[in-house]
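[Primary structure, fold]
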Amino acid sequence: MLKGKSVLFRRVSRFPLLRAIRAYWLVALWCCIGFVSQSLHAQELEVKFSFVKKPPRVGLIYAADGSSDQIKALDVDQKNKEFDSMVYVTTKDTSVNFKNSDDMDHNIYARPDGSWSGFDIGLISPGANQMSTVDFPAESFLRMRCKIHPKMRAYFAEIPNSVYQAFEFKKDGLKDVYIFKVPSDTVKVGLLFPSYDKLVLDIQSGSATAKLIKKGQEKGEVSVTRK
């Protein structure tokens, strides 16, 4: 059999037209496989927010099932008395590299929350960095600060996997619409906001709607729909 295949390939190689046809069908097959694979592994969700008054500064939506991919490493940097991102996302055992690209000292920390004891990285000098694995509460959204510069702020979100999208809401943005891509086998999505109740929506039927609650008060509504 191996000899027969070898003879066939030698014959094809002698004829430019046959070679071109063979190459064309191989490319077409590869493109088709890629398209089908992408279709099977991704879908779009339309996420609509409606707030009663002032929206939260940030929020996050994530796939609550269907993916086990983890975030292995994350950089958190500071410059000009600002964090380089408003939202940092971790999964269990993510290694966080706290960097200081500023020309002054910083001290990153987060206050305790419920049974969680918080964390304090300590003083980080200009140009230095410190590796740490912070044990955040599961599916939490916590504010991070600097002890030296109290106006600095950002947020850490701990979620089950690496499929997520973070939002930064405008102060007057009472209504917002976003597109969120998730694996095709996702049937539940979670939503996190600072100081809000955590939400998990079942979208198996195609859509789901829920109230946004903060400290027992209704602050808005969210709807998630498969496109």
Notes: The two ends are 50 Å apart (CA to CA). Confidence is low (pLDDT under 50) at residues 1-13, 29-40. Residues 82 and 152 are 6 Å apart (CA to CA).
